Amino acid sequence: MTITRGIETPMTPTRVQRPARRTEPHPPRLDSRARPSTPGEDRPRPRPVDLTAWLADAPGPELPLPLVPAPPAAGTGAGAGRRVAMIGGNAHRDHPDLVRADVIAWPGGRYLRPDERSTAHASLLVGQGVVHARGLVPAATLLLAAVGSPDANGADLQIAKAVRWAVVGGADVVVLPFGRQRLGRRLTTTLHAAMAEGVQVFAAAGDLGPEALAFPASITGVVAVTAHDGVQLLPQCSQYADLAAPGFDVPGAGLRTRARLQGSAVAAVLAAGSHLAWCEAGARPDLPSRTDA
């Protein structure tokens, strides 16, 4: 305080000048609902493959065997009123390409777990073209019989029951996309009976080597189908078959991305689908016949 003539007077306080606060721009506020994009996320999803067009565009090699012909383009109505039976594994029927397909499952295989390979095989026949593949006969009815491993104990009894179920169910075509070395009398008798009813049977010629023809493709009257890659037969596939079909990098329905299949199993499925499509179009193709069992 200041003393003036003996009188104390209060000192007037002085305001301290503080340096001005630096203001920085606030970062932009992120929308909590937004998420960062990942590289390639904005790329358009690949279009589903039309197996009829794909088979027509597939290169055909020069082989001593006849090639499976591409069926006429019939769009989503191909196969209407026809039935094809596939006997082997179980498919994911809730896959987007199969959920609207007409699929009837054999009750005897309801406990077998679905697998990706069988799902892809089914899509080659009746795939609806939602995400991955539109099949050769998308309007046909697929009789799906899951029988497990063909080499398991008691497998022939299950396969024979499934074949009989398919015949009773009105199958025009039965495809067996598997092969093995061991013969089977029960299955031979059952397939002969099915063919006597007018059912056309296709089977994988096998991936046991070029000099071997797998069972049941070796049964008289069954159309054995081997696989090529557009240039030649696949090295592991049989050369003693009746027909050859594409069996390398064949597109089908996958669980996450499009599946790529190879081998004589997928070739047999393509042959069966092509044959059924031709039959539905009113031009039943002539098939080679083997007289040796």
3D architecture notes:
The protein has five helices and 13 strands. The chain has helices at residues 51-57, 116-126, 155-168, 185-196, 264-280; strands at residues 2-4, 7-9, 49-50, 83-88, 102-105, 133-134, 141-146, 173-176, 200-204, 223-228, 243-246, 250-252, 259-261. The strands form four sheets. A seven-stranded parallel beta sheet has the order 5-7-4-8-9-10-11, with helices on both faces. It has a two-stranded antiparallel ribbon with strand order 1-2. The longest helix is centred in the last third of the chain and has 17 residues, at 264-280. It starts with a strand and ends in a 13-residue tail after the last helix.
Helix content: 10-25%
Radius of gyration: 33 Å
- Please state how the strands of the largest beta sheet are arranged side by side: 5-7-4-8-9-10-11
- CATH class membership: Alpha Beta
Low-confidence stretches: 2-7, 27-41
> How far is the N terminus from the C terminus?
126 Å
- CATH homologous superfamily? Peptidase S8/S53 domain
Instruction: Kindly give the count of domains.
Output: 1
Q: How would you classify the helix and strand content by structural class? A: alpha/beta
